[in-house]
Amino acid sequence: MAHPDLARLAQEAPLRVLLVNAGQPDALTWSGLYQPLRLAAKLLGPERLHVDVRSPDKFGADALRHWHLVLLVADESEAALKPAAMRTVIERARVAPFWGGVGAGVLWLADAGVLNGVRAALPWALYADVDIKADHAVFTPNLYEFDGARLTCCGGAASIDFALTLVEHVFGAALQAQIKEALCIDRVRGAEERQRVALQARFGALQPKLSEAVTLMEANIEEPLSTDDIAGLVGLSRRQLERLFKQYLGSLPSRYYLELRLQRARQLLLDTNYSIVQVGLMCGFSSGSHFSTAFGALFGHTPREERQRRLTA
Predict the structure, then answer these.
(1) Is the pTM value of this prediction over 0.70?
(2) Residue at 117 is within a domain
């Protein structure tokens, strides 16, 4: 399903994308982002897509060129190597209609205070470097986020999924399929899929009750617990648990739990041969119609259509 904001970029001819490389060119975060976009530009031709690369110092000094999308890129291991001109770089990047960060770039944007109120995918290893009370970005444990004109990705191997999803939203599934074939990639992980240790890394010490509640949810997908049961097991009232989820995850426990189960269902539809009915039962849905309705509300298409996408691919 096309992202309505990103789909507008396809109207630009050529679409000009700039990657500000603030890290090493052989890092997984950089290569995972650059290779799919470079192939897209090659397949489409310069009249439709132009992908360029700048170092932070050269980008900060270049105030004349116009870009439609600017991404600040660095591996999470390079977070402490923030360029001296970062403030200027960020100010320049925000002139573009669409902008964001990948890997350590997300942390630098947050430190600059330009992600206030924005859902952002911060690498889990960098959670300790962010002051939760001081920063007002809504950090999620997801692989990547498209929040309006702001794009963020946790980096690493997820950069490939992020770049391929960006290609699909802007230029369509056919081009994405060509790039997947060229790079020998079978499946693109969705934005809603989570960094496996993100929640524990961020909240384990600061909010152990929240981390414990999420762990209980993840361990009880087939037979879901009630919100009251989870609250009792972690030693909180229902109201206290709901307050924690709302404050740190921007969701009620029941909604968060439902999305966990649906994400698991989507993974089973893509990666296994279980029937749609079996998948629904394995993820705690006793009614096929309830499963189909909830799945469609979250992902924009039915479980049958999800399975058909895998068979077609």
Answers:
(1) no
(2) yes
